[in-house]
């Protein structure tokens, strides 16, 4: 009976974590470049009272084991890196990645970070930066007298000026890919960092070696499906409710046992 209380408690804790993952997905449904999370579970160790095949008498064996589970635990949170919807913005500096890959930015400590959020801007020095003000790596500077900017599918950034209406290349965006995107470490602010699980970034030109291409004047929206997340929300709520009922039922049975005369 006490085992049932513990098992149900682990179930309630797991459903709380499930709900936290769903709520984070829903909260970021409109976050540019966001990749939804999925909470994963594992069953805990089993208490083996009798192993399968254990002798039950002369020349006889148990056909099945007698085991009791001890509950569930959260084993990890996996991200889905499916392509989000590409939306035109009309902003020439915005860029969306169509296919695999990550934009590379430099953090203040000199390390690299990676993002799918292509909402680029220019800082006071004319450098292309992300929403946090981190410059692209390698850096690209837009001339102060530029009257037009365009980003090609291959990452080429071209500008026009009043003195020269012919587009002039001022830099090229690079794309990083990883052996295991799921191993990337989320930093927040639409940024990820490489880890031992993701492998080192393989940086190159868009459209080469399996890297995606770029679409200027557009951004990639979150890949969160709100309807799917609402279903997950209901499932987490019902799972939590049922586990709480198990605790109530076990408590009633314990009370009945202690009141026996």
Describe the structure.
The protein is of the alpha+beta class. It folds into two domains: 2-81 and 224-258, no CATH class; 86-220, no CATH class. 23% of the residues lie in helices and 34% in strands. The strands form nine sheets. A four-stranded antiparallel beta sheet has the order 10-9-16-19, with no helix packed on it. It has a three-stranded antiparallel beta sheet with strand order 13-14-15, with no helix packed on it. Helix 1 packs antiparallel against helix 2. The two termini are 19 Å apart. The model has no long low-confidence stretch (mean pLDDT 92).
Mean pLDDT: 92
Q: Which shape, going by the Cα principal axes?
A: elongated
Can you count the helices?
Answer: 2
Residue share in β-strands: 25-35%
Helix content: 10-25%
Structural class designation: alpha+beta
* Strand segment count: 21
Sequence of strands across the biggest β-sheet: 10-9-16-19
Major sheet: 4 strands, antiparallel
Give the CA-CA distance, first to last residue. Answer: 19 Å
Task: Indicate how many domains the architecture comprises.
Answer: 2
- Helix-strand topology string: HEEEEEEEEEEEEEEEEEEEEEH
What low-confidence regions span 5 or more consecutive residues with pLDDT below 50? none
> What does the radius of gyration come to?
27 Å
Write the layout of secondary structure elements.
Blueprint: H1 2-27, E1 37-43, E2 46-50, E3 55-57, E4 60-61, E5 66-69, E6 72-79, E7 86-88, E8 95-98, E9 102-106, E10 112-115, E11 121-122, E12 128-129, E13 148-151, E14 156-161, E15 164-172, E16 175-177, E17 185-188, E18 191-193, E19 202-204, E20 213-216, E21 218-220, H2 226-258
Antiparallel strand pairs: 1-6, 2-5, 3-4, 7-21, 8-20, 9-10, 9-16, 11-12, 13-14, 14-15, 16-19, 17-18
Helix pairs in contact: 1-2
């Amino acid at each position: 009976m006490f085992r049932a209380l513990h098992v149900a408690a682990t179930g309630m804790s797991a459903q709380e974590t499930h709900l936290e993952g769903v709520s984070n997905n829903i909260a970021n449904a409109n976050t540019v470049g966001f990749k939804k999370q999925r909470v994963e579970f594992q069953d805990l160790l089993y208490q083996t009272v009798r192993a399968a095949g254990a002798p039950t008498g002369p020349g006889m064996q148990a056909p099945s084991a007698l085991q009791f589970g001890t509950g569930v635990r959260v084993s990890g949170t996996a991200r889905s890196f499916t392509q989000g919807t590409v939306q035109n913005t009309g902003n020439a500096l915005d860029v969306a990645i169509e296919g695999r890959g990550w934009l590379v930015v430099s953090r203040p400590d000199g390390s690299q970070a990676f993002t799918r959020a292509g909402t680029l801007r220019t800082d006071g020095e004319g450098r292309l930066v992300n929403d946090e003000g981190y410059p692209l790596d390698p850096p690209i500077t837009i001339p102060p007298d530029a009257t037009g900017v365009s980003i090609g599918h291959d990452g080429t950034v071209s500008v026009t000026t009043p003195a020269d209406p012919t587009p002039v290349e001022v830099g090229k965006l690079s794309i990083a890919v990883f052996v295991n995107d799921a191993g990337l470490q989320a930093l927040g602010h639409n940024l990820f960092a490489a880890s031992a699980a993701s492998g080192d970034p393989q940086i190159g030109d868009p459209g080469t070696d399996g890297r995606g291409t770029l679409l200027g004047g557009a951004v990639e929206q979150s890949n969160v499906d709100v309807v799917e997340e609402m279903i997950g929300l209901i499932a987490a709520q019902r799972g939590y409710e049922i586990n709480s009922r198990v605790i109530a039922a076990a408590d009633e049975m314990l009370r009945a046992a202690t009141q026996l005369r």
